[in-house]
Structures are given as C-alpha cells and as structure tokens.
Recover the amino acids of this structure.
C-alpha cells in the first residue's frame, strides 16, 4: 500500500466475544498507526459476555454491571463503532447495508445506510434454533441476548409475585420452569434458578413452598446431558442436579409447546408456564445464501480454513455464524464455543496484517480444544481440560469442585484481558472490589 493510497477498510459485523476482541486488537495494531480503517457494526450499544446471560436470567447478576460500551471501547482502541443491524450485502460494490433503526414506538431515528469495505469480517454469532416446532416461538423465551435474559427474569418475578398474592391454590405448572436443551446454557440455568428462586422465597414470599411449588425440569432429546463432556462428568452433573431436585429427562423429544407446558414425542406432557428454549443453534436467517455466498442448512457461512468464504476471498466469517473445518481438509467442523471464536479472532489479526502487506499466503486455522467447563451455581463446577491438546496421548483431564470453579472464572478474566489488557483488567478488578457495597446477590426487579 502506497503512502498516498487511502487506508484499507476493514468492516467487522458483530460485536460478540470474537468480534469485539478482533476490533480491539486490530485497532491497537493497525488503526493506531493509520494502516487500516477499522469499523465495528453491532445492533446493540453495549457488549456483554454471552456465558453470563443465564445469571442475568436468574437474577443473580445485574445486567449492566459487566457490560462494555462499544463507543467507549472504540475511542480507547482506535476503531470506529456504528450502531445498526446488517440486513444486506452487495459483493460487486463491496458494501454492507444496515436496516433503518427504530425505537420502541416505531420511530425511525437512524435511516438505512451503506458501508464500503475492502475486507469484510462477519461475526454475528448464532441464535437459538426452534427447528420449526409448533408453539416454541410463541410460548418460550430464549437466552441469546441480554434483552431476552431480562425478559425471562421479569417473567419469573411476575409469576412468583402473582403466586404470593393469589387467594386460590396454585395450578399445576404455574411456577414450574421447563428448560428445553441440556447443553451448557440449559444446565447452568437450571442450577442457577434453583438457588435464586429459593433465595427469592426466603426474602418474604412465605406463601410459596419452594420444594412443592417451584419445580425445574431439564429436557434433552439426546440420551445424555452435556454431550461435549465425557460420560463420567455428564453423569456427575446429573447426580448434582438430582440432589437439588431438578427433574432431568433425557431421550425426550419435544413436539409442541403450549402456554401450559411441553408435549413430547413419547406422549408425555411436562406442565410449565415458564419455558426456556435452549436446544440447538442456527446463524441468523438473513445470512441464508446472502448475495450468492455459500451457506449450510443452519445458515452458517461456509468458509475455508483461512476463514475466507468459499465464494469471495474478501469476505471472512468466524465464530458461530461460520462452518469451518477443525483443520485443513477435515470433514469435522469447529464446534460453536467461545474458545473457537477467541482462537479465530487471534488468527485473523495475523491474517489482516498479511493482507495489508499483499502477502497471498494466509494462515490456516486449526482448532485446539482446551476442554469444557460447566458451572452449577454455588453447588459445584465440572469439566474436562486440555481436550484434544493432550487427548491423543493422555486423555482429557477431568476436574470438579474448587479448581474447576477457579478455572471457569478465569475464562472471563481472559476475555477481559483481550479487551482491556493485563493492567487494565487488574485495575478494574481492584476497583470493583474496593467500591463494591454490601448488597444482596439477587435482583428483585
């Protein structure tokens, strides 16, 4: 690139864990030196780490306590932030289109806009997949966004306050929570809800018997929960959930959701007026064959190991919205995990440097499985570490309890380090500890 040419325009769509980490690092390395013009686009104004959403839903985490304002991060780290939702792409003009932005009253306060790019990186994550099952979209709440998590918490509180003031016996399922999908989100939510609902009752809802009235069911179509974990840890998790009276049902395929509960393929009915859908993912629907790009059956953009889309070398995709082989030539695909997006974002920093130098030899991604951890509120944490990193020689290292909980919490610190640096994360942690006032753990509103 010559001294007189305009800066290379890198547009990143999606400010999830991978997108915000990539924008921050590119801003620090390329934006600061004016080697590239980096723009991050997201349909929200703040970022929150997605694995925290189940705590927001349960009311054990203030939804604004750990968020990050995109505009501030952009100012601090030499990139631009633009507020809006991508809904179109013109590959010939090399432009992305953002839909008009409207407020809660339907008033359009930001018009439709186009943004030009030299390199486009799509990192818009995934949404819950209801598989077209009847009644799910009408009667269930998913936990893809902070707004959905807050909506669930509000719905739960209304149900509890209504039951507290009711002069009639509670209906079957009135305070039952049924969670469809026993992956990490569903399992962590079940444990968090068990603790938070009992704390809520203890603060003065004396008309509710938590053991009789507040029931939690976890429903999984597969023959075991937590398929990413070894059988022993999956069973250990089931044992823990049973101890806190969570009803775990495996091999139960849901065929319909109603206002009163779930119907399963086996002919069973699970009564519940509070339902969460956490079974399966898909990329956002607008990506399906967008401007001729190759997508799969769940709308993911198909990419090479370089993370370039198969039909346009100027467009990259990573994270949950991309179908990427675990290594070059493999037919196995990268699983939708935060660690995948983090690894891919790190590689794309190197990739962008090479593109700006005109180097045609781009790095290729190879997935490294560092394992999985599942936090069961204050009860325990379970997981396996190292995954395929050591698995070829020694097998996964299974961990539980205090050590697993420490490592689980450190994962969020690693994400913060990627955004603030080591010093910034340390200072923020110290500041939070110093200014933290004695307060209840649970939100009552």
């Amino acid at each position: 690139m010559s001294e007189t040419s305009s800066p290379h325009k890198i547009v990143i769509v999606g400010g999830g864990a991978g997108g915000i980490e990539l924008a921050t690092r590119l801003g620090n390395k390329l934006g600061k030196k004016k080697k590239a013009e980096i723009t991050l686009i997201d349909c929200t104004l703040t970022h929150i780490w997605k694995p925290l959403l189940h705590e927001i839903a349960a009311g054990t985490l203030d939804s604004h306590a750990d968020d990050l304002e995109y505009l501030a991060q952009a100012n601090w780290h030499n990139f631009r932030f633009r507020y809006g939702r991508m809904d179109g792409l013109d590959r010939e003009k090399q432009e992305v289109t953002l839909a008009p932005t409207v407020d809660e009253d339907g008033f359009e306060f930001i018009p439709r806009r186009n943004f030009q790019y030299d390199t486009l990186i799509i990192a818009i994550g995934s949404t819950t997949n209801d598989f077209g099952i009847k009644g799910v979209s009408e009667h269930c709440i998913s936990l893809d966004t902070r707004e959905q998590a807050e909506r669930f918490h509000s719905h739960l509180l209304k149900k509890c306050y209504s039951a507290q003031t009711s002069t009639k016996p509670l209906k079957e399922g009135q305070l039952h929570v049924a969670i469809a999908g026993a992956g990490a989100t569903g399992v962590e939510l079940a444990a968090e809800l068990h603790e938070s609902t009992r704390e809520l009752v203890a603060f003065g809802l004396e008309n509710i018997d938590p053991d009789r009235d507040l029931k939690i069911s976890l429903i999984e179509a597969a023959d075991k929960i937590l398929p990413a974990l070894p059988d022993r840890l999956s069973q250990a998790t089931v044992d823990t959930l049973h101890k806190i009276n969570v009803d775990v049902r495996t091999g139960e395929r849901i065929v319909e959701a109603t206002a009163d509960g779930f119907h399963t393929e086996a002919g069973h009915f699970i009564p519940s007026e509070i339902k969460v859908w956490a079974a399966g993912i898909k990329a956002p629907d607008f990506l399906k064959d967008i401007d001729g790009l190759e997508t799969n059956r769940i709308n993911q953009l198909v990419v090479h190991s370089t993370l370039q889309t198969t039909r346009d070398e100027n467009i990259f995709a990573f994270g949950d919205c991309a179908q990427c082989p675990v290594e070059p030539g493999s037919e196995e695909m990268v699983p939708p995990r935060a660690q995948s997006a983090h690894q891919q974002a790190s590689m794309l920093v190197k990739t962008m440097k090479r593109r700006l130098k005109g180097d045609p030899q781009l790095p290729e991604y190879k997935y490294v499985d560092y394992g999985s951890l599942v936090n069961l509120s204050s009860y325990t944490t379970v997981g396996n570490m190292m995954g395929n990193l050591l698995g070829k020689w020694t097998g996964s290292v299974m961990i539980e309890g205090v050590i697993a909980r420490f490592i689980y919490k450190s994962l969020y610190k690693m994400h913060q380090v990627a955004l603030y640096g080591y010093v910034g994360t340390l200072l923020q942690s110290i500041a939070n500890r110093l200014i933290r006032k004695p307060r209840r753990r649970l939100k009552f509103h």
In short: The chain has a mean pLDDT of 89. The first helix runs from residue 17 to 31. The CA atoms of residues 127 and 176 lie 25 Å apart. Residues 136-280 form a domain with the FAD/NAD(P)-binding domain fold (CATH 3.50.50.100).
